[in-house]
Amino acid sequence: TMVESLCALGFSHLELGAVTPLAQSGNDKPRLWRHIQEESIQNAMGFNNEGVSAVNARLKKLFPFAIPLGVNIGKNKITPQEEAIKDYLSLARNFTQTSDYLSINISSPNTPNLRDLQNSIFVQELLGELCKVYEKPIYLKISPDLEIDSALSLVEAALDNGAKGIIATNTTLDYSLVMQAQEKGGISGKVLAPKSREMLKQIALMLKNKSQKATLISVGGIADAQEAYARIRLGANLVQVFSGMIFEGPSIVCAINRGLKQILERDGFNHISEAVGVDL
Questions:
Q1: What is the DSSP secondary structure assignment for residue 49, as one 8-state letter?
Q2: How far from 272 is each of 7, 100, 242, 267, 277, CA to CA, in Å?
């Protein structure tokens, strides 16, 4: 519902969702908390959305759009694990003509047992099927709570089976990061930055060592140009913000863009792509 206004803020691309096949109301309220001192957010939303038909109807009026539109897709809460692939396939088919890429969400902590799908066997099967029905880029969004070896195996399985890149990371279940954590939901915002940054670095190093090309999208705790620049130097081709908008306001996009321009000029880069991965 906010695609045009978000575009006007200065984003290079937008990722919408999560969208599920059927509309669902999400988890019981309260399900969203601000940790003001830590400039972080805790959410247990549970993929509340109007479903693929309603979202797709709105996108059809906009697409193709001025900037790339990705759609983050997830399974319905009521869908059994053994039928999860059907949900993702249904979504992929529906968004073939109304999206520029898909973000596969199997890493949200707010749908029961969803993170159990973060295994190489499921990812291999899922992407094998998705690539048959969706020809545009597909990215896998991963959790910051995975052991590094498990995360790298998952990344390898995704890229070997048709994914064009990785989105790192989703929210964390490490409640020790904030002083007054709720015992449910995932934490995002500034406290997530170290975990998200380290996951990005390890994935980028693996890809560099294997001379494997993939698009890396870094998200989690980015609230200013300095942090965005740090992620780019660690291998991020794109960065995303979400919780930062709560604390910095809508001008965060302009501030990051202007700040990046100044930093790149300071460091002698002619184009942002020249800075990608220089710290690896």
A1: B
A2: 20, 22, 21, 11, 11
Name the band, by pLDDT with cuts 50, 70 and 90, for residue 244: very high
CA atoms of 45 and 256, how far apart (whole Å): 27
The predicted-structure confidence for 132-186, as pLDDT tens digits, reads as follows 999 999 999 999 999 999 999 999 999 999 999 999 999 999 999 999 999 999 9
Strand partners, 14: 69
- Catalytic, out of 40, 108, 196, 243: 108
Q: Which amino acid is at 164?
A: K
Residue of 188, 193, 214, 189 whose CA lies nearest to 203: 214
| DSSP designation for 46 | -
What's the pLDDT at 268? 98
Q: What are phi and psi of 35, to 5 degrees?
A: -105, 90
Identify the H or E element spanning 35: strand 32-35
Rounded to the nearest 10°, the torsion over CA 116, 171, 42, 56 is -80
Contact status, residue 225 vs residue 256, Cβ threshold 8 Å: yes
108 is catalytic: yes
